[in-house]
Amino acid sequence: MATHFESGGVSIRYIDRGDGPAVILVHGFTGNSASWTELQEELAKTHRVIALDCRGHGQSGKPDHYGLAMVTDLIGLLDHLNIECATLVGYSMGAEIVLRTVVAYPDRVDALVVAGSGWSGTLDEANYLGLSQALESSGSFGPMLANAGPEGQVPSAEDIAQVDALLAENDTKALAKVAADMGEIIHLTESDIKGISVPTLAITGALDPERANLERLQGAMTDLSLIIIPGADHMRAFLHADFSHAVVRFVTR
Prior knowledge:
The chain is an alpha/beta fold. The chain folds into two domains: 2-120 and 187-251, 3-Layer(aba) Sandwich (Rossmann fold), CATH 3.40.50.1820; 123-176, no CATH class. It is 43% helix and 19% strand. The chain has twelve helices and eight strands. The chain has helices at 37-43, 69-80, 93-104, 122-138, 142-148, 157-164, 172-180, 183-186, 190-194, 211-220, 234-239, 241-251, and strands spanning 2-7, 10-17, 22-26, 48-52, 86-91, 109-115, 200-205, 224-229. It has an eight-stranded mixed β-sheet, with helices on both faces.
């Protein structure tokens, strides 16, 4: 069932399916609750599974501030649904949100899946700011791709169009603000990470540039398992059968 709740005056849309222990699915940048449709249906056979549209995405509100408010939205969703504790599953931007959530609200999380991103930092904030500037100035990923590639290598129009397809049905001005405010979320200290005690599954594609941020978690967290999907990059890992199988095994363990 799709519905909305209010979080700090912002309407947040979510889809609620199934019964049992609660699982919250948090999508990546440019995604929405529909990103999880197949996995949500599978998990809903044994669990209550809630997928939300993060603020700035999908059918949720597009306010002026994001950052830590996206963590507050997640806790507000638990409160709204009278859920004391849940398993959090996040991909890419969603992984960064759920990591910050378990650090800030450890009593509300009983297990964690982080995939496509992990223990980020200064370089990642610079990347988000570059993304924000590209979207604000052109409504396209093109300027960011041009700056991110090797010197002298210009992305083709086809490459840019393929990535820009992710912006379809999105408000690029809102996404620019989301990216600009991610610095509030991603700067976690070593003490923060070592303080995470819940069972955690980390998943990355072998070719994902974010792989190192997930491998950093492995050395700092005591109850973490890392799965590397061979041959998969950032986008393909999320769509790979090994990804969904690993999440289902972990959540239903």
